[in-house]
Design goal:
- One of its GO terms (molecular function) is cyclic-nucleotide phosphodiesterase activity.
- The protein has two domains: 134 residues, 3-Layer(aba) Sandwich (Rossmann fold); 187 residues, Hypothetical protein af1432 (Orthogonal Bundle), CATH 1.10.3210.10.
- The chain has 15 helices and seven strands.
- Helix 6 packs antiparallel against helix 7, helix 7 packs across helix 11 and helix 11 crosses helix 12.
- The protein is rod-shaped, with a radius of gyration of 34 Å.
């Protein structure tokens, strides 16, 4: 505990120091005949209790309190003003500026001891409460982070479960997640939302858990009836993920239900068009289709990057939102870097020009 005593009279400083020392000989006491020097030290290390005279040269007690209360961390420090002034205005102004208590000159040592004892006890209680609140806040942060970590783990496990049934690879999920975040950033979305999109994007096809293997793994073209079954997976994915209180899983549900919608309204499951498609769905549509085109599947070879790029350009305004494609293509070097970093194992005849 640190006590500042501010008084231009050296005799008063010595007397007040002795009284405070008798209250608690473990506190540190700093005496200042110059109030400006006291303010400088207070800005370096905040006091726990301040005893300040009202009548001082340079700046008076009012100005001292005004400047001190403006410092960070000074709002709860007890301040006792010592004054001989009987003027009611002096005390009223001092209270308005944040003075905690008063002592009247000549100071009664017994009264001063009691007031200092009470105010030091009040300060200790405040510091203990502040430390406890900080500890509780840290515990809340840790608990919240643990919940977020479990949510992310759940997402990863759901995505892996879908991978075991789907010919898509884990590398596809990594690539399209990075592509999605890249587009989101290029569109100027808040950093927090960009990171949520990155984490939620792997859930886009979780509904394929409900698609029969004979359709999901069919090496040839699907019949109309089979395609109708396949097109149910966004609704299934939304049903799996909807209803959560988690913002991340809510976003995953939104992506699951909208990533097959097309900008011109010919997509599924609802035929949404333009900006009626949530921006997350518009973003993931570009990332998912591009990576699907450039990846091998049981029913096709991988396209080369330039052919897939041309496909995006040809389908701007039809399948894809123009802004999402524009941002994607403007970051082509980063796209190539992501593609290389999360490349699939190369097999013979895997790429088709």
């Amino acid at each position: 505990m640190l006590v500042h005593i501010v008084d231009d009279n050296n005799t008063n400083l010595m007397l007040f120091e002795q009284i405070v020392r008798r209250v608690d000989n473990e506190v540190s006491i700093a005496c200042y005949p110059d109030p400006l020097a006291a303010l400088v030290d207070c800005s370096r290390q905040m006091a726990d209790l301040v005893l300040v005279d009202y009548m001082m040269p340079g700046i008076d007690g009012h100005e001292y309190v005004r400047r001190m209360r403006a410092m960070p961390g000074a709002g709860d420090v007890p301040i006792v003003m010592i004054t001989a002034a009987a003027d009611r205005f002096v005390r009223q102004t001092a209270l308005e500026l944040g003075v905690t208590d008063f002592l009247t000159k000549p100071v009664d040592p017994s009264e001063m001891r009691v007031r200092v004892t009470n105010l030091l006890a009040l300060r200790r209680s405040h510091l203990r409460l502040r430390d406890r609140n900080r500890w509780l806040a840290e515990e809340v942060r840790n608990a919240t982070q643990a919940v977020l970590d479990r949510e992310e783990e759940l997402i990863v496990r759901l995505a892996k479960a879908a991978e075991y049934r789907d010919p898509e690879t884990g590398s596809h999920i990594h690539r399209m997640s990075h592509y999605s975040r890249l587009i989101a950033r290029g569109l100027g979305l808040p950093d927090e939302l960009c990171d949520l999109i990155f984490k939620a994007a792997p859930m886009h096809d979780v509904g394929k858990l409900g698609t029969p293997d004979d359709i999901l793994l069919k090496p040839g073209r699907l019949t109309d009836d089979e395609m109708e079954v396949m097109r149910r997976h966004p609704v299934i994915g939304h049903a799996i993920l909807s209803g959560s209180s988690s913002q991340l899983i809510q976003l995953g549900a939104e992506i699951a239900i909208t990533h097959h919608e097309k900008f011109d309204g010919t997509g599924y499951p609802y035929g949404l068009a333009g900006e009626k498609i949530p921006i997350t769905g518009r973003i993931v549509a570009v990332a998912d289709v591009f990576d699907a085109l450039t990846s091998r599947r049981p029913y096709k070879l991988a396209w080369d990057m330039e052919r897939a790029r041309a496909y995006l350009i040809e389908n701007v305004g039809h399948h894809f939102a123009p802004q999402s494609v524009e941002v994607f293509l403007s970051a082509w070097d980063e796209i190539l870097e992501i593609r290389q970093r999360f490349a699939d194992p190369v097999e013979p005849e895997q790429t088709m020009g």
